[in-house]
């Protein structure tokens, strides 16, 4: 029961910390049905930063038109159709809508670029260190309350969690 709780906590931590400022986030986009790819684009509609990444299979180069994304973006596994965008060192300005578009190599129409996914990234700053925030996690027989400031900064000791559960009278 304790290991299930620990696994759940680690899963929850990965979900919650994914959008933290300074962290890394993966915006999913799978294009297996569009293989072979000729062109792939990640864009930010409605902003002056229209394109984040452009990939053309002819050149095999990853074009990053905006300097602010230079060194912070990459595609996950473009050879196998996973063109998910990995965004590193997330900033508050990275929040917003992202769209993934692909064009098949076999498409005859000049403008046959297809939208594959639209993602809204909500960038959340971490809670201040030491600020108490209750996080309720239900297990089979009890509830566990953690200090979110400690949790988000991965200062939880498994032994203390185990001891807390063993000592609780719930």
UniProtKB/TrEMBL annotation:
<dbReference type="InterPro" id="IPR013783">
    <property type="entry name" value="Ig-like_fold"/>
</dbReference>
<dbReference type="GO" id="GO:0001817">
    <property type="term" value="P:regulation of cytokine production"/>
</dbReference>
<feature type="domain" description="Ig-like">
    <location>
        <begin position="22"/>
        <end position="117"/>
    </location>
</feature>
<dbReference type="GO" id="GO:0009897">
    <property type="term" value="C:external side of plasma membrane"/>
</dbReference>
<dbReference type="InterPro" id="IPR036179">
    <property type="entry name" value="Ig-like_dom_sf"/>
</dbReference>
<dbReference type="GO" id="GO:0005102">
    <property type="term" value="F:signaling receptor binding"/>
</dbReference>
<dbReference type="InterPro" id="IPR013106">
    <property type="entry name" value="Ig_V-set"/>
</dbReference>
<dbReference type="Pfam" id="PF07686">
    <property type="entry name" value="V-set"/>
</dbReference>
<dbReference type="GO" id="GO:0050852">
    <property type="term" value="P:T cell receptor signaling pathway"/>
</dbReference>
<dbReference type="InterPro" id="IPR003598">
    <property type="entry name" value="Ig_sub2"/>
</dbReference>
<protein>
    <recommendedName>
        <fullName>Ig-like domain-containing protein</fullName>
    </recommendedName>
</protein>
<keyword id="KW-0472">Membrane</keyword>
<dbReference type="InterPro" id="IPR003599">
    <property type="entry name" value="Ig_sub"/>
</dbReference>
<keyword id="KW-0393">Immunoglobulin domain</keyword>
<feature type="signal peptide">
    <location>
        <begin position="1"/>
        <end position="17"/>
    </location>
</feature>
<keyword id="KW-0732">Signal</keyword>
<dbReference type="InterPro" id="IPR050504">
    <property type="entry name" value="IgSF_BTN/MOG"/>
</dbReference>
<dbReference type="InterPro" id="IPR007110">
    <property type="entry name" value="Ig-like_dom"/>
</dbReference>
């Amino acid at each position: 029961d304790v290991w299930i709780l620990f696994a759940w906590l680690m899963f929850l931590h990965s979900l919650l910390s994914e959008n933290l400022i300074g962290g890394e986030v993966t915006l999913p986009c799978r294009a297996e049905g569009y293989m072979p790819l000729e062109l792939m684009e990640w864009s930010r509609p409605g902003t002056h930063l229209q394109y984040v990444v452009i990939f053309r299979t002819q050149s095999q180069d990853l074009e990053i038109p905006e300097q602010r994304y230079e060194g912070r973006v990459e595609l996950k596994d473009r050879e196998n159709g996973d063109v998910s965008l990995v965004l590193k060192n997330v900033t508050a300005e990275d929040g917003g809508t992202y769209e993934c578009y692909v064009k098949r190599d076999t498409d005859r129409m000049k403008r046959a670029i297809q939208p594959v996914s639209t993602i809204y990234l909500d960038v959340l700053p971490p809670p201040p260190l030491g600020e108490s925030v209750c996080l309720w996690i239900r297990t089979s027989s009890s509830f566990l309350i953690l200090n979110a400031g400690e949790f988000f900064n991965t200062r939880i000791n498994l032994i203390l969690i185990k001891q807390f559960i063993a000592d609780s009278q719930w």
